[in-house]
Amino acid sequence: KILILDFGSQVTQLIARRVREAHVYCEIHPNDVSEETIRAFAPKGIILSGSHASTYEDHQLRAPQIVWDLGVPVLGICYGMQTMAAQLGGRVEWSDHREFGYAEVRARGHTKLLDGIEDFRTVEGHGMLKVWMSHGDKVTELPPGFKLMASTPSCPIAGMANEDKGFYAVQFHPEVTHTLQGTALLTRFVREIAGCRGDWIMGNYIEEAVARIREQVGDEEVILGLSGGVDSSVAAALIHRAIGDQLTCVFVDHGLLRLNEGAMVMEMFAGRLHAKVVHVQAQDQFMGHLKGVTDPEQKRKIIGREFVEVFQAEAAKLKGQDTASGTNKGAKWLAQGTIYPDVVESGGTKTKKATIKSHHNVGGLPETLGLKLLEPLRELFKDEVRELGVALGLPHDMVYRHPFPGPGLGVRILGEVKAEYATLLQRADHIFIEELRKTVDEHTSKTWYDLTSQAFAVFLPVKSVGVMGDGRTYDYVVALRAVQTSDFMTADWAELPYSLLKRVSSRIINEVRGINRVTYDVSSKPPATIEWE
Ligand code: XMP
Question: 382-391 and 202-217 helices cross at what angle (nearest 10)?
Answer without folding.
Answer: 90
